[in-house]
Amino acid sequence: MKETLIKTEKLSKSFSNGGVMQHVLKNIDLQLYKGDFTVIMGASGAGKSTLLYTLSGMDTPSLGTITYGGRAISDLSPDELAIFRRSACGFVFQQIYLIDGMSVMDNILSAGFLVSRDKKALIRHARELCKAVDISEETQKKFPSQISGGEAQRAGIVRALINSPEILFADEPTGALNSKTGLDVLDTLTKFNEQGQSVVMVTHDMRSARRGNRILYLKDGVILGECDLGKYVHGHRARHEKLSAFLTEMGW
């Protein structure tokens, strides 16, 4: 039986827009499991990113609870949430947000120093991660403006993993990349997931979604359905057909 990482009960999120309440998430009951590659899909405006940010503690719910390892993170103070995010979560975004005035390695280490004081161990871990995603020592010394988009996103993934998070959240991580570099990033995420890293990814791209073993479809703030694709197998035609049929059923 799978171990539950995050559980929500009646999770809701609303915003006031010009005095009119917009209900973005509506009474969502959900469990995320250790080791899964969970993909959240849905049309634009369905609430995908809001769900990801709320699950990760980057945003707070309007109603309902979020528990992580049995602890209600929805009740934490802002300072406690910041500690939770730094130690338990990693984040990869469509926009990579590397700091221009710092080398690639310093960008990676800056996130690690928020949690660890052991500089030598942190540098060793960063170099191991860089090697795993084919970021050379030469590239590590460069500034973000001197590297490709694919290299920058892989560096972003390393930065997200530097503190060995329990769960990695990715919001459209290939959205700003061309087909080839996007594929490299997907291969990187898949590689770490196969090594046991839990991943939750928002995407509107079927190629990206096929990497997940569990697909959640969000519509109007509600999880309309989910699809179990099983472990990722490259070039598996039946996997593509199953996902296509599911998305068609969901009205995608």
| Mean pLDDT across residues | 92
Q: Helix and strand string, N-terminal first? A: EEEHEEHEHHHHEHEHEEH
Output the CATH topology: Rossmann fold
Proportion of beta-strand residues:
25-35%
Strands side by side in the biggest sheet: 6-7-8-3-9-10
Count of discrete domains = 1
What's the tally of helices? 9
CATH homologous superfamily, by name?
Answer: P-loop containing nucleotide triphosphate hydrolases
**Oligomerization state of this entry?**
single chain
Which segments are poorly predicted (pLDDT under 50) over 5 or more consecutive residues? none
Quote the distance from N terminus to C terminus: 31 Å
Overall shape: it is globular
Number of DSSP strands? 10
Account of the protein in words:
The chain is of the alpha/beta class. It has a single domain, classed as P-loop containing nucleotide triphosphate hydrolases (Rossmann fold, 3-Layer(aba) Sandwich). Helix content is 37%, strand content 27%. It is built from 9 helices and 10 strands. The strands form 2 sheets. Strands 6-7-8-3-9-10 form a 6-stranded mixed β-sheet, with helices on both faces. The mean pLDDT is 92.
